[in-house]
Amino acid sequence: MPAAEGIKYDPEGICPETVCDGFRRAETLAKKYMRLLRNYQVFWYILYGLIALSCGIGNVAKQHTLDWFWIVIGAEAMAASLTLLPSLVSTGKKWVCSLAGFTVSLLFLLLVCCVYSGGTWFFTAASSVLLGMGVVFLGPVLNTLTLPDSLKDQKFSLYLCIVLILLYVQLEVICIQTGGRWYWMAFVSILFAAWLLFGALVIRKLPLEAEWKNRKALLYFGGVLLLLLLIYGVYCLQYGRGWFVSAAVWTVFGVSLVILPFLLFKNQISLKPHRALAYLGFETVWLFLGLFWEGATVAGVLTALLSVLLPWGWLGALRYLPIGKWFRTGIAFFWTGLWCWLYPWILDRVYVLCYGWDSDNLSSLIIPVDFSNWQDFATRGNNIFLLFLLAMGLLGAGCMAVGIWKRQKDEEKEK
């Protein structure tokens, strides 16, 4: 096979001359680089050594001891971690090693300064430095490090946990130094805030089993509720309060009032055929448990009972009556008007029965209206109320009429 143009082979066929020249140039450049690197290192060795030697001699000559000399050593270590240490590391993570060296030398410098000045602030300063360095540099460090397979997808969770630990260490140090009693309250409050802000991201990355993968929202809101209750418990224990159970009962009631429909709608809880019944039943039972725990009066319990009759009537009419949807909607409108008409009248009688009210202004089933008078506040309210009741009746009747019409149309189609 003819030789390629521009390439000459030696008689013994060892290698092309151009390839050998390339190897020789690379070897020459490598030797130059190693010589420059060695000279660079020697320069910094000599410079730092001369500074340390001169400061040591000066410290001994003047103070007859080595005290501020160690401050110089700490400062030199910080400078060396940025200038000399990267040249000594052969791996591809030089900046991580330099950052670690800088942090360690900074902590050493703080310790020496604290001892030299006779202070007690070292642990506060050290914990603050570690927290600040962790917040800023921990993320890039985790992205650089080779983590086990089980942690490769959990870098954010790992970052958050380490930062929280550093924050808790700083708070513990400050609490001990100030003689405070607020540590555990701050602990649970910060944990609650972190979960509220980042809990959804943490759960999203968790390797959950199949049955929990579609219930991530339940895990998140469950964590929010538990941590909120934990805050109540810690506060009550720390300050000797006795309202934990009351706060827990009404917090669960309020949170479930807002969140439970979302969880049921997203199939976080397997009650699909009866989700509305489960929601309303849970809220009703929890409401009365809270009232009984608070020692509510008979009037209060009866008022709550009258109030929950409205949504229960809607549920029974719209979901469980075995008739067409237009008839169910019409009955729901009729029930709304009937409940609004009877509620104030029954409520007044309950309070008369329980508290012996004797008033001339008790509600009446006959609504005193005067459509020629819209100036008086009470009369205007009665006029609007009657119009509302008539609207509910007309809407109910209209839905019934549509239901009858559709039924007749369906019967005609069948014939």
Specify the overall morphology. elongated
User: Which structural class best describes the helix and strand composition?
Assistant: mainly alpha
Largest sheet: none
The Rg value, from CA coordinates, equals: 39 Å
- Uncertain stretches: 1-9
Global mean pLDDT: 87
Q: How many H/I helices? A: 14
N/C terminus separation? 95 Å
SSE string, helix = H, strand = E?
HHHHHHHHHHHHHH
Quantity of strands, as a count: 0
Any overview of this molecule?
This protein is mostly helical and 415 residues long. Among the domains are: 1-111, no CATH class; 297-415, no CATH class. Helix content is 77%, strand content 0%. The protein contains 14 helices and no strands. Helix 4 (94-117) runs antiparallel to helix 5 (122-144). The protein is elongated and about 105 Å long. 7% of the residues are buried.
